[in-house]
Amino acid sequence: MEGIVIKQLYRETEKFEGQMVKLSGWVRTVRASNAFGFIELNDGSFFKNVQVVFESDLENYKEISKLPISSSISVEGILELTPDSKQPFEIKAKNMIIEGLSQSDYPLQKKRHSLEYLRTIAHLRPRSNTFSAVFRVRSIAAYAIHKFFQERGFVYVHTPIITGSDAEGAGEMFRVTTLDLNNIPKDEKGVVDTSKDFFGKATNLTVSGQLNGETFALAFRDIYTFGPTFRAENSNTARHAAEFWMIEPEMAFADLNDDMEVAEAMVKYIINYVMENAPEEMEFFSKFIDAGLMERLNHVVNSEFGRVSYTEAVEILEKCGEKFEYPVKWGIDLQTEHERYLTEQHFKKPIFVYNYPKDIKAFYMRANEDGKTVAAADLLVPGVGEIIGGSQREERLKVLEARMDELGLNKEDYWWYLELRKYGETVHSGFGLGFERILMYLTGMSNIRDVIPFPRTTGTSEF
Amino acid sequence: MEGIVIKQLYRETEKFEGQMVKLSGWVRTVRASNAFGFIELNDGSFFKNVQVVFESDLENYKEISKLPISSSISVEGILELTPDSKQPFEIKAKNMIIEGLSQSDYPLQKKRHSLEYLRTIAHLRPRSNTFSAVFRVRSIAAYAIHKFFQERGFVYVHTPIITGSDAEGAGEMFRVTTLDLNNIPKDEKGVVDTSKDFFGKATNLTVSGQLNGETFALAFRDIYTFGPTFRAENSNTARHAAEFWMIEPEMAFADLNDDMEVAEAMVKYIINYVMENAPEEMEFFSKFIDAGLMERLNHVVNSEFGRVSYTEAVEILEKCGEKFEYPVKWGIDLQTEHERYLTEQHFKKPIFVYNYPKDIKAFYMRANEDGKTVAAADLLVPGVGEIIGGSQREERLKVLEARMDELGLNKEDYWWYLELRKYGETVHSGFGLGFERILMYLTGMSNIRDVIPFPRTTGTSEF
């Protein structure tokens, strides 16, 4: 008979009452006496298990009773409602087939394991409750992002991963090469001869798709990227990975206010969509990972995000009487402690801080009239701090070129970026959302390594 | 007043009849006399332009009349139906603002440009009709793929881009490193000291997410990847790029027949979704790029895909009397000419060829009983040839290990992949779809460089 998935049984239980169904999945637990036994079966389609009841009249009762955890089986049986039990229904097995016996040294036994240990078995950890929940939410949140932008007519752009442009942050980039490292070709000065490399020049892994994204915004008006980005930062923190995914929308005919509006709408959309489509997973996180999670997310969804200028924010911090590790004064880059104070203690809701000093922000951000600040806006959320960084882009060719000169950037490297300002410049804006950042926020997981299927960090490229 | 996008005017024209609307966009053409003029305006939200009629009573009539192509403007005006004209409506301008004057040397003038030339201005080509259509279809097709899998409960997995595993095809991989190429650290034997590299070992860009994907399929049952993959192949063809996007679904409790069913359903879903959601673009492709396109796609959507074993396919080719450049006999890898003969001349519809000789297929494909073939299936489509390659995976640990030994693969490198076969193995299958391959098929574009926003090929990493 045709198989069915556990999710469907949970979603349409009544339809299947008293029916024969066929399930396949992996054994999470087995308990058995001489007469009957119970198996908690999970097939990956749903967070919850199904309870299978089996009796000793089964031909293979003995083997079934002793199944090692994580063995795969198929079950044919009758669905019976169990209104007096914790679970809403169970399956009375009529026939059970062992598909694949697990070995008794299966590393994910029922006891609790540390997250650190689970990272060493990244190929098996999605079979645990925690990571089953995390990675299903990752998938659902990714889809929510596509859905949000597609429904608003944004065009999805795959900006390049390998880049020949020596953009900002070059020192922290990964080199991509096909040169034989044992035998690097050099020119007469003894310098690497990059003309011999695959692309005929030095290439790196991208740190941002924004500059490429702008070219598409100036054709399609509203676009977004969603792809992997890379930082070769040698930092071993719970918040940094060498490989992570970013979402970078870019909108023509949109100023900083429009930018903040889209960012706010997007964050609320993602949270709502995940709460609606992964209620079991979210309940699990609230119960076992982060008790304040649901309250915090509900609060975010129902708040109107605050907006405060950097200058005002600094004044608030200076006057608040709080002792910070990093002293506050106008011109500093806000640290996580400052960001969290503002959003958690002072405003008690998500806030955009806008108009940052130009010296701590990137060259492409639009200069304000005051000569000191740029039209940048970061979104700070309670519990995390910065989650989104955005800005209006400098669309005025002369102002942009002057700023690049000031910073010593080589304008020839950016010829195509500058040409956008020659052929139909418009006010335009965009922002970047670190996908793992919002996943940590959604799940309460506190280490970025635990929201990435196979994390890459300094010294770690396993699997 | 609040702006509106052109797409909305086309989709709900009647609602706006006689209304004042505000549009912003880029000028595609201007024609003007002393008394009045016409502008074709495009705002990127829609394939088609809007005709703006403006008269000499406008304050800035003279400047507007002489606007260089690609200048950006904002227009306030009344929408009037024009039942006797080619276009369904036009905007009678009441007020026009020049946002950004384009320069007169704008490279995309109205005359037709070669695709080769347009590649050199990849930052501007999305403003042309052809690339506006191509890249909107790219976005819509990408979304169709997510929608197809998410609606079926598949979990989206981001498999790693940087990989430390020295998997198949290692010779054609890009090296990723933070070592200083001018000063490579070497050990006492004079060999690169990879322990000094960022990850403490040699790492490359991924060629496939499949092996990682399998680990998730054995937890979530049905999963898919959709991400960039890389080949450092030094081949300069119209079908190969160094960086491209792949979709790799993987399904537990699914055999080769299930695999083919999902692949067929997916291809039909993508085509239907794009035809429904990009009708203007598809009409453009049929008119200007590939006259047989719509007929071919409709035929695919309405055919039941054929299924033929490799052995039967070879017999057909041997008996057909066709002269092939590459002679046919059992054991060869089918060439594009063979694939196209089968699907275009013989079957006249898409076909799966299954059960290929094991010696031309990968180590992980499931061995058939005959000892000579593996449970692999490729989908061939008219006009292109192979578009999907899939297989049932070898789930039997001993058979898999024996095959790896036979091929001289180092089993330790695959320890986690092999462990999947120890802890609850199941029948499972998957396939890979090259995203650009299907885009070429959908649009009729014949060079892969023209369906990738910023293509990376041998010697080319511009933008």
Structure overview:
- Chains A, B: Pfam families: tRNA-synt_2, tRNA_anti-codon.
- Chains A, B: It catalyses: tRNA(Asn) + L-asparagine + ATP = L-asparaginyl-tRNA(Asn) + AMP + diphosphate + H(+).
- By secondary structure, chain A is of the alpha+beta class.
- Helix content of chain A is 30%, strand content 24%.
- The first copy, chain A, contains 13 helices and 16 strands.
- Chain A has helices at residues 6-11, 61-65, 115-119, 129-151, 210-220, 256-277, 279-288, 293-302, 310-319, 336-346, 397-406, 415-419, 435-443, and strands at 20-32, 36-42, 50-55, 72-81, 89-100, 155-156, 162-163, 175-177, 203-205, 222-230, 243-252, 306-309, 351-357, 373-381, 385-392, 428-434.
- An eight-stranded mixed beta sheet of chain A has the order 6-10-11-16-15-14-13-12.
- The radius of gyration of chain A is 27 Å and the shape is globular.
- At the A-B interface, strand 1, helix 4, strand 6, strand 7 and strand 8 of A face strand 1, helix 4, strand 6, strand 7 and strand 8 of B.
- Strand 8 (175-177) of chain A pairs antiparallel with strand 8 (175-177) of chain B, so a sheet runs across the interface.
Brief write-up:
The structure is a homodimer of 463-residue chains. The first copy, chain A, is of the alpha+beta class and 463 residues long.
Question: What would the average pLDDT of chain A be, to the nearest integer?
Answer: 95
Most strands sheet of chain A:
8 strands, mixed
Query: Which overall shape of chain A is indicated by the principal axes computed on the Cα atoms?
Result: globular
- Poorly predicted runs of chain A are none
Portion in helices of chain A: 25-40%
Radius of gyration of chain A: 27 Å
Distance between the termini of chain A: 37 Å
Q: Name the chain pair whose interface involves the most residues.
A: A-B, 106 and 106 residues
Number of helices of chain A: 13
